[in-house]
Amino acid sequence: MRRVGVNWLSWHPETWAFLFAVQGLYLLAVEPMRKEFSWAERFDRRKAVLFTLGLLVLGMAEGTPLHDLSEQYLFSAHMTQHLLLMLIATPLLLMGAPEWLLRPLTTQWWMQPVMRLLTKPLLAGVLFNVVIIAAHLPPVYDSALRIHALHYVQHIVFFITAVLLWWPVLSPLPEYPRLSYAGQLLYLFVVAFPQKVLAAILTLISHPVYATYINAPRLWGISAQMDQEVAGAIMWAPMGFILFGAFAAVFFVWFSKAEREEEARRAQLR
Questions:
Q1: Residue 165 CB-density burial (10 A; 0-12 exposed, 13-18 middle, 19+ buried)
Q2: Cβ 101 vs Cβ 51: under 8 Å
Q3: Which helix (DSSP H) or strand (DSSP E) does residue 44 occupy?
């Protein structure tokens, strides 16, 4: 198999131009337009930081040499790209979107039944995992890598289903509320299970399954089999760690709230 070098200067200016445009529109909406149209009295600037970080992570996934590594060389790079897109960028963007900015986009009469349906935890979790599993079927996976338009559509679908995945935990809108704390813990525990099964299959299967990476030029002496095992490990460990971190954060917030309520109750009894 021939060896090639990676173009480390392929930073996809079209992707960064799009992200800078989104950032500009966001800043315009939360400052001048918010004041001009009286959308809200205040704006929590921490949300702007979270939203900007989300765009930067999205840029790392889609606008750096990681994108080329993913498409042409390494399955493990592609798995890293998906991790950045769905489990880091998406929740940051959702946490950074003010409710008064999202409400006009999601509460139109024709959007309300769609949002109420798609943000139901059971359907959101099922859709996310069905999309992930279907995307990793060898014919689908290799077709997406071979057809650029299909690959872009696939990533858009990943992003949309990732928003749905995180919505029951991070929803900024009372119209489509979050689960209770206990419900969030159960949801995060259950929704991670199918990915664990897929990760185990990718890690333990004795041969590489994707033709694109079997035939890809080898980089740094990494075989196709080793590459697949690393990809499975990335899905198993870092992805699992992020969901476990969300689980732990929900538990901590729930425990802290219960503790404050108990202290307030005791103060009333004194």
A1: buried
A2: no
A3: none
CA distances from 77 to 41, 83, 84, 134, 266 (A): 43, 10, 11, 19, 53
For residue 219, which amino acid is it?
Answer: L
Per-residue pLDDT tens over the stretch 219-241: 888 999 999 999 999 998 887 78
Taking only the tens place, the pLDDT of each residue in 118-162 is: 999 999 999 999 999 999 999 999 999 999 899 999 999 999 999
Token pair 């509460």 is found at 107
The pTM of this model reads 0.90
The radius of gyration of the chain from alpha carbons, rounded to an integer in Å, stands at: 21
In angstroms, the CA 105 to CA 169 distance is 20
Alpha carbons 150 and 192: distance in angstroms, whole number: 26
With contact defined as beta carbons under 8 Å apart, do 225 and 208 qualify? yes
